[in-house]
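Trying the structure run again after the queue cleared.
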Amino acid sequence: MKSAALFFIVPFLFFIVSPAVAQSNTASIFGQVRDTVTREALTGARIELHSLHKGAISDSLGNYVIKGLPSGSFEIEVRLLGYDSMKRTLTLRDGQDLRVNFELHPATMQGKEVTVESEREKELERTEVSHITLTPKVIEQVPAVGGESDLFRVLQMMPGVKALSEVSSGLYIRGGPPDQNLILLDDNVIYNPTHLFGFFSTFNTDAIKDVDLLKGGYPPEYGGRLTGVLNVTTREGDPNEVHGKTSVSFISARQTLEFPIPGGSMLLSGRRTYIDQFLSAVDAQRILGDSTPLPNYYFYDLNAKIDEHLGPNDHLSFSGYLGADHLVYPSNGFVNITLTWGNRLASAEWTHIFSDALSAKTFAGYTMYSSQSSGNLVENPFEFDNGIQQATIKEDVDWLPNPTNDVRFGASVSRFQFTFFNTLGSTNKPLKDTGGVPYYLAAYAQDEWNVTTHLTATGGLRTEWLDRANTMTFDPRLTLAYQLSPTWTLKASSGIYHQFLHLVSAGEFTFFDLWVPGTSPLPPSQSTQYILGLSGYPADPYFVSCELYYKKLNNIVEYNETKFLSDSITELFPRGTGQAYGMELFFRRQVSNFTGWIGYTLSWVTEQIPELNNGQPFYPKYDQRHDIQVVLNYKLSDRWTIGATWTYTTGQAYTADIGYYHLALDEVGVEQGLEIPGMMGAERLPDYHRADASATYSFSLFGKHATASLDIFNLYNHRNVWFRVVDTQKQPPEISDELLLPIIPTLGIEVTY
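Done. Tokens:
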């Protein structure tokens, strides 16, 4: 625990002494940028003093600061994509700081040129590599499935991000499975972000403020995963007026309310599927008869957020999420099953601005994922229960010692609890030898240094300590961004990353997901990443980028199905090495009535685990050589908007059977055909391709703004292959394909008030 104490003492000492260091005789301006209509804090706004060649970009709370300013009168300009720019004249006195808040109006058509320029500068000056930012407006423009706009399905239309099938919302980023991604909701970890067996994500678009995806090369403030970071922020409610939105789609209904409270605002947003209620109302079971048991299924989720502005220097927010899936499959004479799985999250975050050069964010959060199944299998009762709980406290400090350096440092401590056991009849079988991760501690420091007017270097170190494993990791990271010209930027990144938790999917569906700790006897996994990228604007409003990446993996974990009866964690989850590399191309038009993007990925993924595939390298199922995405959106008029998407991927790798044999038990008269598997990942399913389309009509309903939408999934009704099965009971054995979804048209309506 001495090492753990140092993680907090060192940042605390910086926290105490840095205000004195930051003092100077020059003046500073600081404040907050908000939406003048919704009063929501705006992220990414550019605040510029052109005559002094100084500026800043607002953070996730809308805060900004510009240091080292002389006395005098200056014109300041604020710009943000989608908003009208604002100019104001300020007078600064020597050594006296000035707080200036801005409220921006949503952009009008006349502001299009400013919008184009703001987007270009924001993209070119972004120092992170492999960074994707999405807003709810972009998410809603992509054709939906079942009338539900889904964040994960939009991300899967980006280069470098894959999905195994159209019934999977998992994110496979640059050769890594979903568990290699750190997924955050308001800085709180969410472990199973899916509904409907992975068909939808848990993120309700109505509650989202913005989305940041880092596909690799992420800075030291993030850790615990090998590949990427997805950070979703819940939006603030309106502190001035009551607003709401009601939406009804093919499978669910959504309701959002936002309203002022003393000192701040509150947002509530929930959704629930209603197919179970519809089937019950029409008495579908009676119509089908008792011989055809009808499953009962629904999912729900609820987002809540409270924001309190305690003064000009303090902001307090409380965030919560509750979501679950429920499935009851009634008895058919052989089996009846009840399944429940879901997440619970709660967090509090306090941001305090000590000065124009120093701010701190204190976070406390709790997250839980649990999955339970129970029932009877041929009159034998069974129960399966697994889950993970995590409680976290962390402190992040942002310090601006001078105009060219932005220093961030922080520390965190987490407490874990794992659950895994199953019963069949009177036999209980907990998973043994997990080692346990009761405590996880981390500390980091990073500096974003403007070396010259064209070169920015972001470097730092993250260290992690795993209790009961006697393991401490040190992860150095460095990113360089060089602005080649006013329209082109070159970026490079390298770093080391560790992961101490592993996800094992014991089956095709997400409710069987099992999280196991990566401590002794399973050491943490490690990845070493190298990224090189070039991006720019060859002509307004067109943005292009090209990135090359290479990732070396060590101590990665796979599930050994042949050892499913073992209670040893090392036999169930053998370790090995791997590598992933590729190239991503991206072309986007973001402004005007015609928008969209085209993405292309060329990639390879291989793994080598001594206990699998006779120790030979193999392609995992998420290795797909070519991946193409096309997303188009066109605003025909003030009322009509149409959109379309098309995706193509190389068929995923799978293990084919090379033979079979029969196992006969003459004394009981049972004969069973068993397959002989070939080399892992040696065969490919047919290539995957699909087109979707949508049309949206805006109108007025009882004086309120409303939209009606038509979404067509799988426009040309191409039935892609999900997986292949072999029927060994037939002679000769028969191979057949399980197909995915056909064409599905859906209608939806949304009313905003």
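DSSP finds seven helices and 48 strands in the chain. Worth checking whether this holds up in the mutant runs.
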